[in-house]
Amino acid sequence: MTDITPEKDSKEPALFLIHVLTASGAPIALIALLAGAQGKWGEMFAWLGLALVVDGIDGPLARKFNIAERLPRWSGSSLDFVIDYATYVFLPAFALSASGMLDQPWNWICGGLIVFTGALYFADNGMKTPDGSFKGFPAVWNMVVFGLMVLSPSQTFTIIFVLLCCVLTFLPIRFSHPVRVKRWRIATLAVTFLWLGLAGLAVSNGMVLEGAAATVFTVASFYLFGVSAVQQLLERYG
């Protein structure tokens, strides 16, 4: 138990709205789950997209206003981890397991591995590198499962790719954060927004992309997946 008094928090109550913003991810996750339970996968991932936007806003606000020191009673990091695990890991694992993308028992095996490795990753205090990258696959299963559902590759490819990501969770390979990593930031941000735009198009089109849109989405996905590893290789051998 920590001996934290509420006096400091009470002097700046407006700052608590940042925690409220973070916590709004919990009801968003519930709505996404309800949509997925009805087989409305596009609607589910639309809600997870909203959760992704919230997650992209609350962190910079918390750092800008130094919430950790100014509201010491409330742990923004703990709150963020709870919401992120639900929206980045658990719900995508549910979608992979329940959508029919994989036959039994592979849906149980892959879904179980996702929630298992994701839980371990969120407990890793060394997940961040000095340049702002993530060390190991950063459990962004919302993007991975979404991409697999939209592109509909073979079941064999889906299983292999899921297993690969689970293994990469524990390897010293960097994965880029599109905002915090300075190297190639403009290109990475441009590709990120392109990916998000095509993702929105896929949701509006019944979780389907075809032709050039599917090709660009695939290229953008592999860029975001591997750009930091390429930078790592260039640093070592370039």
Largest sheet: 2 strands, antiparallel
- What structural category arises from helix and sheet content? mainly alpha
Give the tally of β-strands: 2
Largest sheet, order of strands side by side? 1-2
Distance between the termini: 50 Å
**Secondary-structure element pattern, one letter each:** HHHHHHHEHHEHH
Question: Strand portion, in percent?
Answer: under 5%
Helix residue percentage = 55-70%
- Which residue ranges are poorly predicted, with pLDDT under 50 across at least 5 consecutive positions? 1-6
User: How large is the radius of gyration?
Assistant: 19 Å
The chain-level mean pLDDT equals: 89
What is the 3D shape? globular
- How large is the count of helical segments? 11
Structure description:
The structure is a single chain. With 238 residues, this protein is mainly α. It has eleven helices and two strands; from the N terminus they run H-H-H-H-H-H-H-E-H-H-E-H-H. The protein has helices at residues 7-10, 16-23, 25-37, 41-64, 67-70, 76-98, 106-122, 141-151, 155-168, 185-204, 211-237, and strands at 134-135, 174-175. Strands 1-2 form a two-stranded antiparallel ribbon. Helix 3 runs antiparallel to helix 4 (41-64) and helix 3 (25-37) runs parallel beside helix 6 (76-98).
Topology:
Blueprint: H1 7-10, H2 16-23, H3 25-37, H4 41-64, H5 67-70, H6 76-98, H7 106-122, E1 134-135, H8 141-151, H9 155-168, E2 174-175, H10 185-204, H11 211-237
Antiparallel strand pairs: 1-2
